[in-house]
Amino acid sequence: MAVPYVVRKKADLTSGERKELWYGVPKRLIDPIRNREFAEYMEKRSGFHRGQIDGILTEMVDAIRSLLAIGQPVTIEGLGTFHTALTSPGFERPEQVTPGKVSVSRVYFVACPEFSRQVKKMKCTRIPFNLYMPESMLTKEMKKADREQELAEYNMEGSKMDEEVQE
């Protein structure tokens, strides 16, 4: 499996002058997986019932919210840690920093290092240009790259089937 991406032109200002360069960027082809679909996916992988998983996910959200509300970061081992960040205006004296002046500015998640390493090792695959660029923008080179990628994917699928037959 590979993470799909599309190619987009973006402005590069790092050199001090504006250059338009092409970059690989994430493409969201469909809506994110929600609890129900995620629970169904986990059911197939784990053997636990979808309803149980869905209930646990719902309770997990409530529990994380409750713990963050009392200032407790929450670590899910193998995944990462949820934290809150606080903000307030600056004051001249410490007693002026009252609860009404302090608020949660954001909730953030820090992935655990092993999880990050595994995700960063994932391969990427380009979504064919012809699926998201107008025909008028497609060059001969882009069409050729699409054909070559399609052929490479076809050959890779064939070799996977060969390996399965040999097993």
Question: What does it look like?
Answer:
- The structure is a single chain.
- The strands form 2 sheets. A 3-stranded mixed beta sheet has the order 2-1-6, with no helix packed on it. A 3-stranded antiparallel beta sheet has the order 3-4-5.
- The longest helix has 27 residues, at 140-166.
- It is flat, with a radius of gyration of 24 Å.
- The model has no long low-confidence stretch (mean pLDDT 89).
- The chain has 167 residues and is an alpha+beta fold.
- A hairpin with a 3-residue loop joins β3 and β4.
- It contains 4 helices and 6 strands.
Per DSSP, the total helix count is 4
Distance between the termini: 20 Å
Strands across the major sheet, in which order? Answer: 2-1-6
Radius of gyration over C-alpha positions, nearest whole angstrom? 24 Å
How do the helices and strands follow one another from N- to C-terminus?
Answer: EEHHEEEHEH
Please identify the structural class as seen in this structure. Answer: alpha+beta
Mean pLDDT value:
89
Main sheet, how many strands, which sense, barrel? 3 strands, mixed
Share of helix among residues? 40-55%
Shape: flat
Estimated share of beta-strand residues: 25-35%
Quaternary state reads single chain
- Record field, number of beta strands: 6
Low-confidence parts lasting 5 or more residues at pLDDT below 50?
none
